[in-house]
Amino acid sequence: MSAITADKVLDIAQRLVQTRGYNGFSYRDIAEEIGIKSASIHYHFPSKADLGVALVSRYREAFAEELQDILTRNAEAPKRLKCFVALFRATLRDDRLCLCGMLGAEMGGLPAPVNNEVSGFFILCEAWLIDVLKQGRKAEEIAFRGNPQAVADQFLSLLEGAMVVARAMNDTDRFDRAANAFLRVLRTPDQD
Amino acid sequence: MSAITADKVLDIAQRLVQTRGYNGFSYRDIAEEIGIKSASIHYHFPSKADLGVALVSRYREAFAEELQDILTRNAEAPKRLKCFVALFRATLRDDRLCLCGMLGAEMGGLPAPVNNEVSGFFILCEAWLIDVLKQGRKAEEIAFRGNPQAVADQFLSLLEGAMVVARAMNDTDRFDRAANAFLRVLRTPDQD
DNA sequence: CCAGTTATCTATCTACTACTAGATAGACAA
DNA sequence: TTGTCTATCTAGTAGTAGATAGATAACTGG
């Protein structure tokens, strides 16, 4: 089946990007893992840029769905933000970086179409965060000084960076410490 | 002169790693920019892993010196932390990532000796931050809940991540917003 | 002036890169 | 049966990767 192979390619490619980076793997690496020839992968994804774009757009769409799910399943800002953290934490669990954190870092050496997709991911995250932060403050579920945009920038940066640092120091606790410390200061003193 | 060429190689290689990543450039890229042949670079750095190690260890030593300078030139924690931010901000200014932020992300596809150097950089930063935070709290120059380690993790992660996100969104203001917002909450209310 | 050192060159190697052309085999439909 | 579509294959392209051997200057100290 075509769809199955294409999905396999995407799954393996995603893992390789998340661990080694865009220039750290080849079509052959993917092909060997599946048990086909690299030429067959060009059938599904003519160029590596095509593969990259497909990779990020799939990732972004899946992420957008999960963000929507968080909203419907959790009414309050603290829980919503905790779930947001959990999305990143789950990725780190098997030694992977956020796909867009990795590609964002490597942007200087990537095909332009890939870069556009990556930017889109961050825009999505920030917009979601700003929304959650605004609503949460209005409902007095969380408290923070300054504008929501600054806090969203802070939070997103923190999570992306914490994944890199935690993995580089081979200590996932560092991610948890950093994320939890941030969530803590967002809570109003009354709720503590 | 030998030293001059070796330095040129390191300077160019560093810029290329910071913008494209370790696997995003070749000896030839460096050679062409200097105006020599790639074989000549192998004379100075026999393997790419050697180059990588030299790159990070030079970066780390320079960074350590700057951190020491900050301590001697600034007595109070808020100023020290502001200077720490400025080190990262200066890197971002010409569209570069922290060398170790980039390599930390790509760790899964790097030679082991390079990885060790990268870990060393983060250990250095964390130790410095923890020290500054402890002293600053004791002197009541800054205020924070929880242990200094968690705040240091948070801060370092925030800066590394903010560089990636800001560059990916082509908006360095995002870095400033995130960093300043963090510095703000560390100040005691009385000082505001 | 000679010997050794340093830094570069030319030329080459092997392995791999992304990518392509054309053949093939099976599935499905008219 | 005939034709089309899908997904793979074999076999190859041109170009690049990191790396090496050996020649060649240029400088340096004795």
From TrEMBL, chains A, B:
InterPro entries: Homeodomain-like_sf (IPR009057), HTH_TetR (IPR001647), Tet_transcr_reg_TetR-rel_C_sf (IPR036271), TetR_C (IPR011075). Residues 26-45 bind DNA. It comes from the Bacteria. PROSITE patterns: HTH_TETR_2. It holds the Pfam family TetR_C_13. Keywords: DNA-binding, Transcription, Transcription regulation. Gene3D superfamilies: Tetracycline Repressor, domain 2. Residues 3-63 form the HTH tetR-type domain. GO terms for molecular function: DNA binding. PANTHER family: HTH-TYPE TRANSCRIPTIONAL REGULATOR YJDC (PTHR47506:SF1), TRANSCRIPTIONAL REGULATORY PROTEIN (PTHR47506). This is TetR/AcrR family transcriptional regulator. It comes from Pelagibius litoralis.
